[in-house]
Design a protein that fits this description.
It is built from 10 helices and 7 strands. It is an alpha/beta fold. It folds into 2 domains: about 110 residues, Rossmann fold (3-Layer(aba) Sandwich); about 110 residues, 3-Layer(aba) Sandwich (Rossmann fold). The strands form 2 sheets. The protein has a 4-stranded parallel beta sheet, sandwiched between helices. The chain has a 3-stranded parallel beta sheet with strand order 2-1-3, sandwiched between helices. Helix 1 packs across helix 10, helix 5 crosses helix 7 and helix 5 crosses helix 10.
Length: about 230
């Protein structure tokens, strides 16, 4: 079994999901007392979000690159970033280490194409929806991503940062997000990407008719495939 490296803390709710699901996944696959080999470091989410607010992405990249180096030194064989938004600096992180980065965009694109879908809706933080780093990564694999109308961006961003990262799951927020997903369906999406780990706390397949692609779940499964190959 290979050692999975994790850069977490963006938010701790996200890190918790990764840690839990990797452990559950190994138990389901191997049984008994089996658990994954992990090297995990977490960053201060307040520091990272302050830098994000000031658009100091070079500093964010340096901070996460340093975290990646620590994970590599701890014995990781490959690396995951437990976040979608901060994949904006994935190239900077990848360049800092010799171990491979399992990029979330590559994993998600494969899952979408394997399902026979080429156009998906994408909901996440405002940065992830408005800047091209993730949508362009999907497009490089032949997957077109539709984002919600701009009038919904602040609402989705606030739902993530003011509610979900604190573990607050509100029915009224779920109802509005379901409406946004249905709008994406009307616009031609054949599925929807939950492009932020915390959104998986809010939305599940039972909430919508459109096929749901939970990015974190897919990332975890791909990591387990690699670690146990």
């Amino acid at each position: 079994m290979e050692t999975i490296g994790l850069i977490g803390g963006m938010s701790w709710e996200s890190s918790l999901v990764y840690y839990r699901d990797l452990n559950v996944g190994v138990q389901e696959r191997l049984g008994g007392l089996s658990s994954p080999k992990l090297a995990l470091t977490t960053v201060d989410f307040a520091e990272v979000t302050d830098l994000e607010d000031d658009e100091r992405w070079d500093q964010i990249g340096s901070l996460l690159a340093d975290a990646a180096v620590r994970v590599e030194r701890a014995g990781a064989d490959f690396l995951l970033m437990c976040t979608t938004t901060f994949h904006k600096v994935a190239d900077q992180v990848e360049e800092a280490v010799e171990i491979p980065l399992l990029h979330l965009g590559d994993v998600v694109a494969k899952a979408v194409l394997d399902a026979g879908i080429t156009t998906v809706g994408f909901i996440g933080t405002k940065v992830a929806m408005t800047e091209g780093f993730f949508v362009d990564r999907l497009a490089s694999h032949g997957v077109k991503a539709l984002v919600p109308d701009e009038r919904h961006h602040d609402f989705l961003n606030d739902a993530i940062y003011e509610e979900l990262v604190h573990g607050h799951v509100l029915p009224r927020t779920r109802s509005r997000v379901v409406g946004i997903i249905n709008d994406l369906w009307d616009a031609g999406a054949g599925g929807v990407l939950l492009g932020c780990t915390e959104l998986e706390l809010l939305i599940s397949q039972s909430d919508v008719e459109l096929p749901v692609f939970p990015c974190t779940t897919l990332h975890v499964q791909a990591a387990l495939d690699r670690a146990l190959a």
